[in-house]
Amino acid sequence: MTATQTHSCLETLGINDTSPGGFAGEWMGSGPALEVITPIDGSRIAVVRQVTEQEYDRIIQRAHEAFLTWRTLPAPKRGEIVRQLGNRLRALKADLGQLVTLETGKIIAEGEGEVQEMILATSATVDGEATAHFLARRYQASEVRVSRIARGVPEGGRARIG
Question: Residue 150 in contact with residue 83, Cβ under 8 Å?
Fold first, then answer.
């Protein structure tokens, strides 16, 4: 991966040289700076401004409020939002794959494969169900929970993966 590709990927994803590391309706991060280093060659990718304890509490509160609103939305509306998320992931797959490669040192095909797992998990297909099941089992021992969201897609409907 060249420096030009790196710059292009970060720029496309809206990652600046220094970026805030938390989100609660708006980006925040007034805590210590954390240099993000790539294991590929030890160079700096960017700097993330970590959140303070108070900012972290705001993020958790905002996430809880979002959950309370989310669960009241009808299934077809939730499904449409998940479909849009999948479409956005598809549109940014190459750049997100490059970012995974930078952060982890994986080859680009593996980086894009990580993104593809997220895309499949948002898909209302057998592939999507299988991916969600795989991820649920993968994180079973942790506190991460994976659930399927009703999408309002008719039986036999298929989201285009690409």
Answer: no
Give Cα separations from 35 to 39, 46, 47, 139 (angstroms): 13, 6, 4, 27
In the DSSP assignment, the letter for residue 153 is P
Please report, for the chain, the start and end positions of each structural domain, with discontinuous segments joined by +: 1-72, 74-153
- Over residues 128-159, the pLDDT tens digits come to 677 777 777 777 777 666 655 544 444 445 54
pLDDT tens per residue, range 9-54: 999 999 999 999 999 999 999 999 999 999 999 999 999 999 999 9
Q: Angle at which helices 75-91 and 108-121 pack, to 10 degrees? A: 170
The model scores a pTM over 0.90: no
Both tokens of 48, joined, read 């993330």
DSSP line for 59-107:
HHHHHHHHHHHHTTS-HHHHHHHHHHHHHHHHHTHHHHHHHHHHHH---
Q: Give CA–CA dist 38/103, Å, rounded.
A: 5
Nearest to 85 by CA among 128, 50, 138: 128
